[in-house]
Amino acid sequence: MSTAFVPPAIAASDLSMRYPSRRPDSRDFVVNGVSFSLDQGETVAVVGETGSGKSTLAAAVAGMAETGEPRSPLIIGGELRVLGYRMRGISEHKRQKVTLRVGYLPQDAGSLLSARLTVAENVAAPIYARDRKFNQRDAGDAVATMIDSVRLPLGILGRYPHELSRGQRQRVAMASALILEPALFVADDPTSGIDVTVRGAILDVVRELQQRRDFSALVVTTDLAEVRYVTDQVIVMHRGAVVGQGQVDEVLDTARHPYVEGLARTRDHARRQEKFRAS
Q1: pLDDT at 277
Q2: What is the pLDDT of residues 116-147, one digit of tens each?
Q3: pTM beyond cutoff 0.85
Q4: String of b and e for 183-214 (b: at least 16 CB within 10 Å)?
Q5: Burial environment of residue 111 by CB neighbours within 10 A (0 to 12, 13 to 18, 19 or more)
Q6: What structural domains and CATH numbers belong to the chain?
Q7: How far apart (Å, rounded) are the C-alpha atoms in residues 105 and 164?
Q8: Would the CA dihedral through 43, 94, 6, 208 be positive or negative?
Q9: Which of 110, 154, 264, 269 lies at 20 to 30 Å from 87 by C-alpha?
């Protein structure tokens, strides 16, 4: 018996991107010749320093490329398919289909919550954006379930974002990104600017929800140590290009690029410190 073909959640082939420029012949690539594939139900972390192109890649996967906005990146070479849709030159109708199935947590998403809406209203906003006539009681139940899933007390539902800590706001934003039960979750540096004591808890939430709901996930981070909280599969980017890809330790043990070699030294130093503390 034949089974239906299930396309990868993400498939990038020689993908190159840049931002709009007044110079039509500009070749200032932000993403340069990137290729990778992510099967449905899998998680990959994209690691790189600031300016490596990882956030641009995440935005494109989330459907934020070629929107016509001034800071929307352009796909100028290669291919990017998300949930089977070709993103280069995508129509607005198809883009909406993609974004309804992709949960996107941009950088510092907690600060982007509407100050005029309560926590419950912020989390429910995507539901009503999709269907204005959605049953309020069902929406309330879905919001309460989602807030509980991101390890926040239900007592915060009536509060406003300014009444919450930064870590709490980030988890509210995560709940909003996941409320429509997306097939793909894109999280761009979800722990940025958050107290180090809270970062592990936020990444644990990502891992637990992915395992429970079986969505695919692309998680962007600048910190290799955070990768293991969510996956052992990594893509390392440097100046727009992929310089390492695969299982974390294998990538570091076979480093052939100076940036990856630096990450390997950082890992080895951390291991020595752990052994020293344990002795």
Answers
A1: 79
A2: 999 999 999 999 999 999 999 999 999 999 99
A3: yes
A4: bbbbbbbbbbebeeebbeebbebbbebbeeee
A5: middle
A6: 7-101+184-197+215-279 (3.40.50.300)
A7: 18
A8: positive
A9: 110
